TrEMBL record:
NCBIfam families found in the cross-reference section: TIGR00149_YjbQ
Name this polypeptide is given: YjbQ family protein
SUPFAM superfamilies per the UniProt record, alphabetical: YjbQ-like
Transmembrane segment boundaries: none
Domain of life: Archaea
Family of this protein: Belongs to the UPF0047 family.
Length: 154
């Protein structure tokens, strides 16, 4: 995973409030759950912001972002729950139209969502002790992902 510092957008007003945008990029395998907490924190530290809120956004319709206690058992439980909610092996109208077999991926991503807002103070993300930020690769193939991190604050 790499932080992409080439694309930094910075806006400010007369009070010193800022909006800064960063990106993180990485490769995924189908069904992978990726802990992105450290990369998100590093991106925050690369800014001048001390307090505010960060939006983590997934461009694309088959990926999602959320928080979880990132440990093998819970990651497996999450995958099992998603399989019960939106099974891979049933008919989806999307698959009949596009023949790409990822109708379940779109449903799962829609239910979890493409974005997350995390507050920060003293240049640190405010997360619970066992709470990590994770990206869920819900597509049925490997992907290159580029997530948007937009930070607003002072």
């Amino acid at each position: 995973m790499t932080a992409n510092e080439k694309c930094v957008i910075r806006l400010s007003d007369e009070r010193g409030a800022l909006i800064e945008t960063r990106y993180i990029e990485f490769e995924t395998d189908k069904g992978e759950v990726v802990d992105i907490t450290d990369e998100v924190q590093k991106s925050l530290e690369s800014t001048s912001l001390k307090a505010g809120a960060m939006v983590i956004f997934v461009p694309g319709a088959t990926g999602a972002v959320t928080t979880i206690e990132y440990e093998d058992g819970l990651v497996a439980d999450l995958g099992d729950a998603l399989e019960r909610i939106a099974p891979q092996n049933i008919d989806y109208s999307h698959n009949l139209r596009w023949h790409d077999g990822n109708g379940h991926s779109h449903i799962r991503a829609s239910l979890i969502g493409p974005s997350l807002i995390v507050p920060f103070a003293a240049r640190r993300l405010i997360l619970g002790t066992w709470q990590q930020i994770v990206f869920l690769e819900l597509d049925n193939r490997k992907r290159h992902r580029k997530l948007v991190l937009q930070m607003m604050g002072e």
